[in-house]
Amino acid sequence: MPDTLAFDPSRLKFGIGQPVPRAEDPTLLTGRGNYTDDIQLPGQVWAVMVRSPYGHGVIKGIGTEAAKAMPGVLGVWTGADLPKFGPMVCGMPLKNADGSAFKSTQRQPLATDKVRHVGDPVAFVVAETKAQAKDAAEAVELDIEALDAVTDASAAAAPGAPLLYDEHPNNVVLDFAAGDSAKVTEAFARAAHVTKLSIRNNRIVVAAMEPRSAIGSVEDGRYVLRVGCQGVFGLRASLAGQMGVETKQVRVLTGNVGGSFGMKAGLYPEYPCLLHAAKQLGRPVKWTDERTGSFLSDAHGRDHEVEAELALDAEGKFLAVRLVSYANMGAWLSAVSPLMGTGNFFKNVQSNYATPAIEVRTKCVLTNTVPISAYRGAGRPEGNYFMERLIEQAALEMGKDPVALRKLNHIRPDQFPYSAASGSVYDGGAFSALLEKTMEASDAAGYPARLAASKAQGLLRGRGIGNFLECTAPPTKEQGGIRFEKDGTVTIITGTLDYGQGHWSAFAQVLHQSLGVPFAQVRLLQGDSDELIAGGGTGGSKSIMASGAAIAEASEKVIEKGKAAAAWALEAAVSDIEFEAHAGPEASGRFTIAGTDRAIGIMELAAKLRATPQKPEGVPENLDVTHVFDQAPMAYPNGCHVCEVEVDPETGVVRIDRYLAVNDFGVQVNPLLVAGQAHGGIAQGVGQALLEHVVFSEDGQLVSGSYMDYALPRAGDLPSITTESHSIPCKTNPLGAKGCGEAGCAGSLPAVMNALVDALKPLGITHIDMPATPERVWAAIQDAKA
């Protein structure tokens, strides 16, 4: 074992920087996870929602008598039967371009006047069994007068379009503007070249592995909701507001969550319905969606129509970028609906380029479709996608090398901290060096030979670059509780929530390095709102920056308490006590009398405090700490992806042949988890780029309403993905991390689509919209030949 002075904590087997396997996996892989649908409470009954079969219509009546008379039915509720709940709204502090106030939609759990999308809930049934509830739900009689529907945002904003709400003229709920319009106009006026693209950011279904499920109950006079979500602390506050009670009257419990990607973060109509029925019936009420219901009621993602423009001088330097967009909100606003096409477009289209002027104008429009909410990246991948497609097109039009054009416009290392036109202040990066590393690692020199080999087989080959930078969500206040348990374990308590990320391992690594607590003895508690005093939930690629920092700061407080306790235990002065987290790779934290070999381990000290009821004044009762980390600025993960595709011109089939991602995620607490997050994000980006597409008919019916009609990427659609690192530690949070959860999408969307366009360029095709399905690619090739 190395001596103390020579010992490097970064070499700890379970310390920061080590690829520790996920501690969660043995439980999940052996089927011992505890998801909401696994829970069976005593006396539990079942709920089934009744949903509108029409995209738009006036409710004339809802017949429930036949359903109420069916076997096992305990109750049928319509909107008229429910109390006036606090509405589900978007509370974002937004204003219209003219300075007028933004007015959110006001959603009640069940529609009472109109239905505004297929799947809009109008009633629910509770019965002894799920089968009985389903049968009764089918017996509910709906008298709905169908109205014309509109599903595209631009069409909904056009004069004469069907109106969803009288209070939202032209269906525009927000007319957003950001940036220096005068400066952008001037830049375009003097530009030597202007590149323009019309880009469609296709709507997707989130398709989480676990459908939404919830159980409502009333326990000890309190509402209790067991539900898969992204953060129990925030959901409790929202739910209490809706139920019209104090937060202490609500408890939210979450176990394992089978994916969310933004979709399960907020309130849904089912939750107050379950709690109301549970209170009336005096029994727990459970609801688990089926996949068809998920397609019709889970918030969808993306869906923007964008006119993108880039102004350049004669040398190729960027002068300004402008996005004019229609953002589809669906029939109702979620808590964050407008964020993606407004502020996140504005923040992220800057990317890693020194573009001096930016303007974003977006009309957020209501349509007769499933509501939109955040989906992995929530506008950040899109901003990068628009910029990267503009750069590729500009390079083509101006006859410039696209790699050289990027490097010409990169923010240089000597410009940091860099105040971007987007309002962000970048703390650091090495953008050109990272791009150079990526091109070398992707074997750019060997590309001509691969191009020739594809051509010899009658295939079109293309290479695409996705150079990206995304602005993570700013870390909110986050709890970092540390509790030494009677069984010798140590519990981390935090307000983030793991829905597939691997928090347990990463957070345990931070604690292990900070305090030397044995890794195997660390436990994680995230899913009980009663245990929390703060919590921002998981979203925006901020968990390790928020919870990790909270744990690191809480550890310092444990050490402070521990010194007072160790002074008592070792019979020394507090000023003589030193703490050493690691004397070697296997050593636990210990408190030592300076200059001596007298010491006590942190776990032994915690046990001694527990075993001694009567302690002198000044000696802490335990080593437990409840701490709240104050928010830190956002971080700026960045990187470059290179994708190579082959296209069969006879069928339009696109095959990804090679894929490399080089990322700057700052300090990586667990590189194994980081690589997994990158792979997942890339897979979802590939899905959106080549396969996934939500399609509605003219009357608002969801045509792509099952996995027979909606194509998710499979293993065969993906190549072996190579990831490498070129990290610059972040300076805005204690761990130096930058967040990685959504960056895979930010790099993959432009990399895949730029590669496809590169392959089709010899045919004169310079743009194609996502998803580039075989049918679309084949049709584009046929049109080019005509």
Automatic annotation (TrEMBL):
Cell division among keywords: no
UniProt-recorded name of the protein: Carbon monoxide dehydrogenase
Domain Aldehyde oxidase/xanthine dehydrogenase a/b hammerhead as annotated: residue spans: 30-148
Keyword Oxidoreductase among UniProt keywords: yes
Source species: Falsiroseomonas bella
Any Pfam family hit: MoCoBD_1
SMART domains: Ald_Xan_dh_C (SM01008)
Keywords: Molybdenum, Oxidoreductase
A GO molecular-function descriptor: oxidoreductase activity
